[in-house]
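User: Okay, second chain of the day. Same drill as before: sequence in, structure tokens out.
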Amino acid sequence: MRKTVMLTVVLMASAVWLPAQDAAKTSGKGSDLETIEGCLRHSEGQYTLIDDTNTIHHLVGGAKLLTHHIGHEVEITGKPGTRTLDTTPAGVASAAVVQPIIEVKSVKHIADTCKSAGN
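Assistant: Same drill. Structure tokens below.
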């Protein structure tokens, strides 16, 4: 009986301890960052990265990091998020679009020319 109680206590403690360890790993520095690779574009004041599946990723922040890599193949690391764009034409009811974005944290140069479909 004593062994059964002790085994139960050990198993319960393990069940609580293991999820806490997983949470510590995922909540650590950089865990919410995403890395994408593709062709860096700049148009109308906006930076975008077009990956090899032709997906357009809207980039925000990091203009000083990005400006020298326009038209190049790069790897962007950043924090995913969203922004709300006002799409209301004059004289019409309010409308908005939520757009996924990547907040740029770092840029790694891959090549001077684009290899992705966005080229």
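Residues 1-28 form one domain.

User: Thanks, on to the next one.
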